[in-house]
């Protein structure tokens, strides 16, 4: 109990901050819009919400009506026994969900003292303490002589101040009514002031006399809220799991594509090297004479009395050939006009072969590079044939 009392100011501060924020209006609008989408039967079944009913003392009778309506739902005499009065009250509340039912004792305006106040904005969190302090100044009563409440009205106020209203009723007026209701076994949730067909919104009921209500729907709502939180956590976990799996698959695909890209790069490099080598060979073949051309040229220029025993052409274009001839020294003159090789000369000494009676020689030369034909000049006239007349 002491813990609840110590936490009451903080809870009241939270409630006031909640009511002053735009969130209640937003959720009320949102709930109404969502409720409008439901069928009428479901709206009637799950609508819920506090259903306030006002209990008034009129002379020696009790009168019950719905908050906001002036039509009486039930009326009975206070001289009846307790069970009959409870039955009359229950008959007036027939069809009302007991968990949503809220019953307020509504006092006439003539029995209640009301005083408007302008308070500093800092007093918003301690209105009840401020009300006790202002009681001596605003009313002829002391705080212990009255049941009072103070509420913020929301009326225009100067900067830094708030508009409030102090509502008080003498205990000599209220306590007998509460005592009589206690004898009848009727518990009220609030004591308020009647304003037109409704109520002002204050609560003059002492906190220690507030009824304790079992709220199974609230427990169900809490269980549903916990289930929603658990399901939301599971959904988020599943979403994260799916995202992680998708990321792993993407990373595996990226690794596969990276390996394929490396293979493609290696193939491209190999293709470039092969194309370069092929181009080099083609260019070399284009610019140099073949061994067959060298052999043909040597066959045409060497005398018939000479023959070759060996012919070689290396990668540098050097030609080496070995053979026999009756007069080997004259071979240099026979080859100096060759269009295929250049710089023919002997390597080593010329030696006589005792078997053939000829001179054995070994010569080296260098392949000539082919000179590409010069392109014809544009506009040049073709050469005139010998038969053409000038």
TrEMBL record:
Top-rank lineage group of the source organism: Bacteria
One Pfam family from the record: PilN
Membrane-spanning parts: 220-240
Keywords assigned: Membrane, Transmembrane, Transmembrane helix
Biased segments, Low complexity type: 376-390
Region (Disordered): 369-390
Matches recorded under PANTHER family: DNA UTILIZATION PROTEIN HOFN
The protein's name in its UniProt record: General secretion pathway protein L
The species this protein was found in: Dyella marensis
Taxonomy of the source species: Bacteria, Pseudomonadati, Pseudomonadota, Gammaproteobacteria, Lysobacterales
């Amino acid at each position: 109990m002491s813990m609840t009392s110590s936490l009451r100011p903080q809870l009241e501060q939270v409630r006031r901050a909640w009511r002053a924020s735009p969130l209640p209006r937003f959720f009320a609008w949102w709930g109404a819009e969502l409720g409008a989408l439901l069928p009428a039967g479901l709206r009637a079944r799950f609508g819920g919400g506090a259903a306030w009913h006002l209990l008034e003392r009129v002379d020696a009778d009790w009168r019950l009506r719905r908050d906001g309506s002036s039509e009486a739902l039930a009326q009975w005499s206070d001289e009846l026994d307790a069970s009959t009065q409870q039955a009359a009250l229950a008959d007036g509340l027939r069809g009302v969900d007991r968990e949503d039912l809220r019953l307020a004792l509504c006092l006439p305006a003539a029995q209640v003292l009301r005083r408007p106040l302008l308070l500093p904005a800092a007093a918003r969190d301690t209105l009840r303490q401020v009300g006790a302090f202002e009681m001596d100044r605003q009313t002829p009563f002391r705080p212990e002589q009255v049941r009072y409440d103070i509420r913020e009205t929301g009326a225009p106020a100067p900067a830094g101040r708030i508009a409030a209203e102090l509502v008080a009723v003498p205990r000599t007026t209220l306590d007998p009514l509460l005592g009589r209701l206690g004898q009848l076994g009727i518990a009220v949730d609030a004591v308020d002031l009647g304003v037109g067909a409704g109520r002002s919104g204050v609560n003059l009921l002492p906190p220690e006399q507030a009824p304790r209500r079992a709220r199974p729907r609230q427990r169900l709502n809490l269980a549903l809220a916990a289930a929603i939180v658990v399901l939301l956590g599971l959904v988020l976990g599943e979403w994260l799991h799916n995202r992680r799996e998708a990321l792993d698959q993407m990373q595996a695909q990226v690794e596969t594509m990276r390996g394929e890209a490396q293979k493609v790069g290696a193939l491209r490099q190999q293709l470039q090297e092969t194309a370069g080598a092929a181009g080099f060979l083609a260019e070399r073949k284009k610019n140099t004479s073949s061994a067959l051309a060298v052999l043909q040229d040597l066959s045409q220029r060497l005398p018939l009395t000479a023959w070759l025993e060996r012919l070689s052409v290396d990668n540098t274009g050097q030609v080496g050939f070995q053979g026999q001839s009756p007069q080997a020294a004259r071979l240099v003159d026979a080859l100096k006009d060759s269009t295929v090789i250049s710089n023919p000369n002997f390597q080593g000494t010329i030696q006589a072969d005792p078997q053939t009676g000829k001179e054995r020689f070994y010569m080296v030369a260098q392949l000539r590079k082919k000179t590409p034909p010069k392109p014809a000049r544009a506009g040049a006239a073709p050469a005139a044939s010998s038969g053409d007349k000038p």
